[in-house]
Fold:
Amino acid sequence: MNTLKFNPRELCSRKLWQLVSTETQEQVSERELREAIAELASRRHYLEQLQQIGAIEEKRSGA
Structure:
């Protein structure tokens, strides 16, 4: 029985970005993709690239 669980916190930001930026859906499920995007955003890595591909909304801090 294969019980591998996807935990985005265990992956480096570069690996998460590779998962997010690949076009093939066979590599990650929709849930895993959302978790990887959320983890990258919380780390504040690849924010500009995530915004460019439309994975996250651009957030601007108001003064």
In short: The mean pLDDT is 76.
